[in-house]
Amino acid sequence: MSIVRSLLGYAPAVVLPRIVSLILVLILTRLISKQEYGLFVLVMTIAEMIDGIVNNWVRIALARFASARGGDFGRETVRSLWIYCITLIPSFAIAIAAGVATQSEGRIQFVAAIMIYLISTGILRFPSTVMSVQADRNGIVAMEAVKALGVLVLGVGAAFASGSYFAQTLVYALVTAAVGAWGVLRSTRPLDLAAGALEPMPKFLGYGLPIIAASIVAVTASSSDRVFLNQMVGPEAVALYAAGVLLARQPMDFLFSLAGVRVFPLMMEDYERGGVAQARRRMSELISGVAFMTLPAAAGILLVAEPMSRLLLAPDYADAAVAILPPALAAALFAGFKTFVLEQVYHMRKRNGLNGLATLPAALVGLAAMAAMVPKWGVWGCAVAYLIQNAVLFATNYVMVQRLMPFPVPWGDVGRTTAATAIMAGVLLALGGPLAALPNALHLAAAIIVGVGVYAGAALVLRPSPVEELLPARFRRSAS
């Protein structure tokens, strides 16, 4: 299956949680205080940081080694689950330390919220990993759809009933754990849990443990902005920053995350079976497909920043969102290409320690930029510092992975995609005056319809390869 078709096939599993997040932001910024919303963001941020450092390497190692074994990886799944449960012990210890370090009051509740979040996300993400190896698209989509609907309905109810961040955390955890339990039953049903070869433990740990060092640096680079802003300014600044950045990150994360649902196992399988030559071709195809989706999306969001922010966010959030959207979008592009494209090479070559080494300079640059800019410019300074960090992050990792496994960049496809994006942007800028006269909802809807239509038409004429893969064979250039 092609990279592009894999990306599109798993789109519902990725888009639904992002839609829910956007709707919840619209509601929560109106129903609960900035203080409580900021604390809710911090719980999710810290929990995701801990999971990314301490727990996620087990899921990555399972996906890496199970992908080359067809469907015979029952024993590997069981062993990985036990290792994962053991990693929860240091996770809880770090959660306690984080609560003490970041909160001057309400520490017990804050720590409990982090632990609850960690447990529930683990229950869901482990079967999701197994399903991605099994290519169980329907199972992944079903889990994410039910979770999204449950979090939306119960989250809105909790917001009306209570203004507490803890209530929101409980709702998220209960829904996520329930859906994850169903996922465990579905993903393990076709497996013989007592059968299948085991990767030797030294090799399993030798591949997985270096991910921890790399993740420490990567997580610091990706999440330090909100933690740093909380320490320097406070939870209310985190609320303003998170709401604005969410408008940039969620659409971009949705598009980039498509590459993480099924493409990771597909890339690993290609490397194991086809070697470096096949992996290089797949990397080129991945870059072409991801650029085709993300470049026009980033340009479009930037062009509708004003009506989108005014429509989706409460008035006291909207001004901050409009200001930070441009640097946040650029940062999301750099971070997405690094995480979901370049990192594939580290995993294929089993050189995960190099990931942390390549990311360290960017993390240090980012912390220095935040220390200089946040006290002076607040949330906008934090967004610009985060952009600087991610630009350095992308550049250093690109150099590293090209040395580790050189691959061709499809400049022709990227150029045609950029040209189609420029045509779309030109049309929207030309219509900026008439569209601005409309109410925000109509302005946003009209701009989206026009932008999508113009980009689709321009891309079809310019014919970058991702479009051709979705066309019937008789319409492709290769058939002419």
Provide a descriptive summary of the structure in words.
It is a single chain. This protein starts with a helix and ends in a 10-residue tail after the last helix. Helix 5 packs antiparallel against helix 6 (137-161). The chain is globular, with a radius of gyration of 22 Å. The model is unreliable at 470-476 (pLDDT under 50). The protein has helices spanning 3-9, 11-31, 34-66, 74-102, 107-134, 137-161, 165-188, 201-232, 235-303, 305-312, 315-349, 352-404, 411-430, 432-436, 440-462, 465-470. It is mainly α and 480 residues long. It is 87% helix and 0% strand. The protein has 16 helices and no strands.
Task: Tally the helices.
Answer: 16
> How many β strands by DSSP?
0
Distance between the termini: 23 Å
Report Rg: 22 Å
| Largest β sheet strand count, sense and barrel closure | none
Helix and strand content put the structural class at: mainly alpha
| Outline type | globular
Mean pLDDT, rounded to whole units? 84
* SSE string: HHHHHHHHHHHHHHHH
Proportion of residues in extended strands: under 5%
Helix % is over 70%
Q: Could you name the ranges where pLDDT drops below 50 across 5 or more consecutive residues? A: 470-476
